[in-house]
């Protein structure tokens, strides 16, 4: 009876594990994920009116004077055309594909030589 | 035979649930100006956004305002669940914390309706919990906002969001984060 129970449990657990193991092979394409930079709740939690002005609602902010109009852009003459250098830039040197490991340094504390 | 089958089933269920409840969570410490304020554990297979102190500005009003570090996290495979912590500077009591929450909730969810509030303890510290519903981007949202009274004149504000259509089992993960919350002062 007990042996049978253990046998069956092992069989069932084994099959269960096999199912999970096999399903794990089925590509990792479940993630939906936000695009980079879009995280609405995070962005909302950043914004706050706490330090702003407690008595004035931001939507009916009548105490704030109107902002003056932006000054017109100053008219600038066209910049002179850049002189074209006679020599073209050489193609950059090919970079090694991987960074070198840092040079091995001696340990900071060296054991002092044994006194005789 | 039937008895054997049911015993086998019980043994298997026990084994699986035991295996599932074991989670190796990742402890995270919230610091402000080099001071460790509190810690919590991020569930496995969640993404954590660490943030940092910064200044943001409304392009129309043009007034820059300082923002404390906001730590946000969500499951890697589910966009409908979100949780965040912030310890705003110069907010020193639960009452102040609730006022701070009032000043951010209109950005977090639209038409918030509070369904219940309660005083409790989180990580051994007095805390106030506000539960409610609202909507965001046309979808229903369940939110739980908490203000936790930290020692030495600080509070931690935690907001947990469950959008409609999210897996209800994430409630356990969110509660586990609160259960792992500890002050570090």
Q: Can you give a write-up of this model?
A:
The complex is a heterodimer of chains A (116) and B (185). Chain A is mainly α and 116 residues long. Helices cover 26% and strands 0% of the residues of chain A. The radius of gyration of chain A is 35 Å and the shape is extended. The model of chain A is unreliable at 25-33 and 54-58 (pLDDT under 50). With 185 residues, chain B is of the alpha+beta class. Chain B has a single domain (25-183), classed as 3-Layer(aba) Sandwich (Protein Transport Mog1p, Chain A), CATH 3.40.1000. Helix content of chain B is 24%, strand content 48%. In chain B, a hairpin with a 5-residue loop joins strand 6 (70-75) and strand 7. The interface between A and B is large, with 31 and 40 residues.
Fold topology:
The complex is a heterodimer of chains A (116) and B (185).
Chain A: H1 2-24, H2 40-46
Chain B: H1 2-21, E1 26-32, E2 35-42, E3 46-49, E4 54-57, E5 64-67, E6 70-75, E7 81-86, H2 94-108, E8 110-122, E9 125-136, E10 139-150, E11 154-163, H3 170-179, E12 182-183
Antiparallel strand pairs in B: 1-2, 2-12, 3-6, 4-5, 6-7, 7-11, 8-9, 9-10, 10-11
Low-pLDDT sequence parts of chain A: 25-33, 54-58
> Helicity level of chain B, as a percent range?
10-25%
Give the largest interface pair and sizes.
Answer: A-B, 31 and 40 residues
- Annotated CATH homologous superfamily of chain B: Mog1/PsbP, alpha/beta/alpha sandwich
Strand content of chain A: under 5%
In whole angstroms, the N-to-C terminal distance of chain A is 76 Å
Name the CATH architecture of chain B: 3-Layer(aba) Sandwich
**How many runs of DSSP E, i.e. beta strands of chain A?**
0
Tally of distinct domains of chain B:
1
The N- and C-terminal alpha carbons of chain B lie at a distance of 59 Å
Assembly form of the protein: heterodimer
Radius of gyration of chain B: 19 Å
Largest pleated sheet of chain B: 7 strands, antiparallel
Q: Return the string of H and E elements of chain A.
A: HH
Number of distinct helices of chain A: 2
At CATH level 3, the topology of chain B is: Protein Transport Mog1p, Chain A
**Overall geometric form of chain A:** extended
């Amino acid at each position: 009876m007990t042996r049978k129970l253990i046998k069956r449990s092992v069989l069932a657990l084994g099959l269960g594990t096999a199912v999970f193991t096999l399903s794990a092979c089925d590509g990792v394409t479940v993630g939906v994920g936000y695009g980079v930079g879009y995280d609405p709740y995070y962005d909302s939690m950043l914004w706050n009116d706490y330090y702003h002005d407690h008595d004035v609602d931001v939507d009916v902010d009548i105490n704030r004077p109107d902002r003056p109009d932006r000054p017109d852009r100053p008219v600038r003459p066209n910049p002179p055309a850049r002189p074209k250098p006679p020599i073209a830039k050489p193609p950059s040197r090919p970079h090694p594909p991987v960074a070198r490991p840092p040079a091995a340094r001696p340990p900071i504390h060296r054991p002092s030589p044994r006194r005789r | 035979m039937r008895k054997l089958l049911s015993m086998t089933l019980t043994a298997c269920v026990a084994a699986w649930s035991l295996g599932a409840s074991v989670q190796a969570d990742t402890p995270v410490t919230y610091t402000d100006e080099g001071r460790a304020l509190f810690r919590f554990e991020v569930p496995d297979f969640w993404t954590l956004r660490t943030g940092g102190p910064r200044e943001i500005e409304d392009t129309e009003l043009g007034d820059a305002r300082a923002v404390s570090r906001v730590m946000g996290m969500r499951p890697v495979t589910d966009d409908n669940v979100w949780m965040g912590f912030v310890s705003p500077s110069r907010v020193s009591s639960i009452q102040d914390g609730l006022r701070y929450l009032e000043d951010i909730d209109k950005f977090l969810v639209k038409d918030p309706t509070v369904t219940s509030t309660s005083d409790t303890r989180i990580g051994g510290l007095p805390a106030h919990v506000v539960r409610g519903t609202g909507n965001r981007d046309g979808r229903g949202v369940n939110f739980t906002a908490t203000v936790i009274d930290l020692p030495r004149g600080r509070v931690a504000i935690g907001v947990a969001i469950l959008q409609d259509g999210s897996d209800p089992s994430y409630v356990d993960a969110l509660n586990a984060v609160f259960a792992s919350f500890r002050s570090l002062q």
